[in-house]
Amino acid sequence: MHHVATPGLRERKKQRTRQAIADAALRLFAERGYEETTIADIARAADIAPRTFFAYFPSKEDVVFAEIDDRLAEVRAGLARRPPGETALETIRRGMLDVMEALVSAPGEYGAVQVRLVLERPALQARALQRMHETQQEVEERVRDLCPGIDEIDAVAVSGMAVGCLQSVLTHCRRHGFEAPAVRAALDRALEIVERGMASVPALNERPG
Amino acid sequence: MHHVATPGLRERKKQRTRQAIADAALRLFAERGYEETTIADIARAADIAPRTFFAYFPSKEDVVFAEIDDRLAEVRAGLARRPPGETALETIRRGMLDVMEALVSAPGEYGAVQVRLVLERPALQARALQRMHETQQEVEERVRDLCPGIDEIDAVAVSGMAVGCLQSVLTHCRRHGFEAPAVRAALDRALEIVERGMASVPALNERPG
DNA sequence: GTGCATTTCTGCAATAGATGCAACTTTGCA
DNA sequence: TGCAAAGTTGCATCTATTGCAGAAATGCAC
Lengths: 209, 209
What we know:
homodimer, mainly alpha, 73% helix, DNA-binding
């Protein structure tokens, strides 16, 4: 029960391979396009057997989200640590902003490629939406944790509202090529509207005892 | 330019075939499961050639949404007709309720099957989310139409909020086996929260001149 | 009714993603 | 050093999906 301190050589090698696959894949996607790149191509570029690809990613589509998934995992961990005395509403706002930061800042070498692919391929867009939906589920759980006894539907509505708003604003910004600062400004404005709605749910605004 | 009055024999036959394929597919999905049913099976049951399947549906996944897509098309048409003097906010509320009705009332012979499949297969869930996203885009356009000059981000945020809320509440209700009346009650409650947020956007609440 | 133009349907072949399986290698640890 | 667990690989297979070209059906004009 001590995996954090020493990830272990095996684990580190695995991470490196995962990274190598993702890098090779994204590079090829950028060069020749998504459908034009086969699993075999990626495997060759990453120096693994084609069969091994599926030991690291469940599907070709998932490799596009490798980096994003890592970042979201960090956000998730951070969301679990709530400063004492924070209201649920504040925790949600912080979560929204963290997710946004994870998605728009320091996009890594292939950030632009990922965004373009997701905007252009419906299948990839669907996978991205699915990830947002998972995020919504987690926000919903967090809201339940923070506000024991909150009305069932209120928790669902509030998290759906917040994540739905985040998702539509982000998509809009990307589709119109907003830079990071403009995205932040847009989300600030959007959050104001969302919070007006959340203000009407008393349970969200109570200071924890 | 007159397709409404007389759909034409050809067109009607096409609709019947489409229906036959969808029925056969859903029946098989219910009987043996989704992955266990191949395109060849569906074609055999619908008495068409396997190749013809793809003339009617772009993919196996889409056949699950055949009925839902038809209903959403109707809603879309209805949404275009706005009673004079209605505010944008009212139009949106009406749209939300219409979409919900389309999705929960009179689900047809295989409604339960469709819901179960979507809840259980991640790939199908992704496609469902994609449809919701399309709906959001349309709501966004409608908002722009109804409120010329509305702030760009406001329009995006409001539509994303509303559709995101609808989507999460619907999913929650289905996952917990709510009956239609309970779903309506839940969405009413959720809409109240959303509307509190929308109330803070002046452009939405102006009566059209 | 006949003939033509258009649309639809079908069969064939090929591609590529995904999965199960079993053998083979590498790694972690005693 | 040697064993057990974990990771890789090759192979076979299945199935969705697409392009293509010919066959068949349909709508319309004459």
